[in-house]
């Protein structure tokens, strides 16, 4: 750090994104990307938009917001579009948390939550997950702060039933409950209807996972108009042109090709089932993941060793050093061919 770096950020520990190595070609199963290319309609629409890049993008994202509103059965005023779902989450921390309103989230979850809290000097409470990595809904009754729940949960893939989340919402009428549904399309129940039913619910989704637009950076929030207005105040005070024209157009194309998205989700879930069976055959212990990834550990082989050896053999997965999950690795579900390579390589490691 330079001598000019503000002291207010001196203790900040930044978010560590998944590796994007360039040194060789990997079977890349570490960042929960889709193994499938974007929809042809998305690519076509983005290419058309490239011819108009001399013009600013629409700051109100009107066409895309209308398409999203139609998809979810809400009004365009209930939609906020962001540069990835991370931007929506950042606005939520800024808008609905402060020194008197802490953030509340699980101790094992999306790693950006504590970073957002730290960068905005927001106190936060980490609620321990149960032994099986599930959320105890009662921990969040009258939580006394703004609640952030990734559902399915990041890292673990474990999901809360929608009915349990609604109980949490009802138990916190004076605080906002943010449901981060980055992985919802792979088998969990969405809470979008709760955003229409309650004035303290924000549902956040992304096109990075099921819709193959990780490189485009497109996320969105769904909430009552008052919450959207709050976050739009911050957006328009920081970067009103936050969505570039090509990303906007690509996202519009994606929404015109929902059959493609649904087919890809089915393939991922089928490949997940195959991978789970094979890992169980090899003696691995797994969470009950309904994301596009699995969370695994072996009772006899160190998690760090598995990660390092897989990487040396050209298979990249995600390893975390936090004590409670240091024996686990998170593995993205890729194509069937990728998962077969992963299993064969893993079998060499555990049977050595």
- From the spread of the alpha carbons, the general shape counts as globular
CATH topology of the largest domain: Aspartate Aminotransferase, domain 2
- Gap from first CA to last CA: 44 Å
- Sequence stretches where pLDDT stays below 50 over 5 or more residues: none
Rg for CA atoms: 20 Å
Q: Which CATH class of the largest domain is shown? A: Alpha Beta
Number of distinct helices: 11
- Class by SSE composition: alpha/beta
For this structure, the quaternary state is single chain
Query: How can the largest sheet be summarized?
Result: 7 strands, mixed
Strand percent estimate:
5-15%
Helix content: 25-40%
CATH architecture of the largest domain: 3-Layer(aba) Sandwich
Mean pLDDT: 96
Short structural description:
By secondary structure, the protein is α/β, with parallel strands linked by helices. It is built from 11 helices and 13 strands.
Give me some keywords for this one.
alpha/beta; 2 domains; 7-stranded mixed β-sheet; 4-stranded antiparallel β-sheet; 13 strands
What would you note in describing this structure?
Helices cover 38% and strands 14% of the residues. The protein has 352 residues and is α/β, with parallel strands linked by helices. It has 2 domains: 18-37 and 259-350, Aspartate Aminotransferase, domain 1; 40-256, 3-Layer(aba) Sandwich (Aspartate Aminotransferase, domain 2). The chain has a 7-stranded mixed β-sheet, sandwiched between helices. Strands 9-10-13-12 form a 4-stranded antiparallel β-sheet. Strands 1-11 form a two-stranded parallel ribbon. Helix 2 packs parallel to helix 8 (245-255) and helix 3 (84-96) crosses helix 7 (225-238). It is globular and about 60 Å long.
């Amino acid at each position: 750090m330079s001598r000019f770096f503000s002291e207010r950020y001196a203790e900040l520990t930044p978010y560590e994104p998944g590796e994007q190595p360039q040194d060789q070609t990997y079977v890349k199963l570490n960042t929960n990307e889709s193994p499938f290319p974007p929809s042809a309609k998305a690519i076509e629409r983005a290419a058309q938009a490239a011819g108009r890049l001399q013009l600013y993008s629409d700051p109100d994202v009107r066409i895309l917001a209308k398409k999203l509103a139609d998809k979810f059965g809400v009004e365009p005023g209930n939609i906020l579009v962001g540069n990835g779902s991370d931007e929506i989450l950042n606005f939520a921390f800024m808008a609905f948390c402060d020194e008197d309103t802490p953030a509340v989230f699980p101790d094992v979850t999306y790693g950006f939550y504590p970073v957002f809290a730290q960068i905005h000097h927001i106190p936060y409470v980490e609620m321990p997950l149960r032994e099986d990595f599930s959320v105890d809904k009662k921990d969040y009754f009258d939580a006394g702060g703004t609640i952030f729940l990734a559902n399915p949960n990041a890292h673990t893939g474990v999901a809360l039933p929608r009915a349990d989340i609604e109980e949490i919402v009802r138990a916190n009428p004076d605080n906002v409950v943010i449901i981060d549904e980055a992985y919802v399309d792979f088998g969990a129940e969405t809470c979008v209807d709760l955003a229409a039913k309650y004035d303290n619910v924000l549902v956040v989704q992304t096109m990075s996972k099921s819709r193959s637009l990780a490189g485009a950076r497109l996320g969105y929030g769904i909430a009552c108009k008052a919450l959207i207005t709050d976050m739009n105040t911050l957006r328009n005070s920081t970067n009103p042109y936050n969505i570039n024209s090509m990303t906007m157009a690509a996202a519009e194309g994606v929404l015109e090709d929902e059959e493609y998205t649904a087919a890809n989700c089915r393939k991922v879930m089928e490949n997940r089932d195959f991978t789970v069976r094979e890992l169980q055959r090899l003696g691995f212990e797994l969470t009950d993941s309904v994301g596009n990834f699995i969370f695994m550990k072996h009772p006899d082989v160190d998690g760090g060793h598995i990660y390092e050896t897989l990487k040396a053999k050209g298979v990249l997965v995600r390893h975390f050093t936090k004590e409670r999950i240091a024996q686990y690795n998170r593995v993205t579900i890729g194509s069937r061919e990728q998962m077969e390579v992963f299993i064969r390589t893993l079998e060499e490691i555990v049977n050595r």
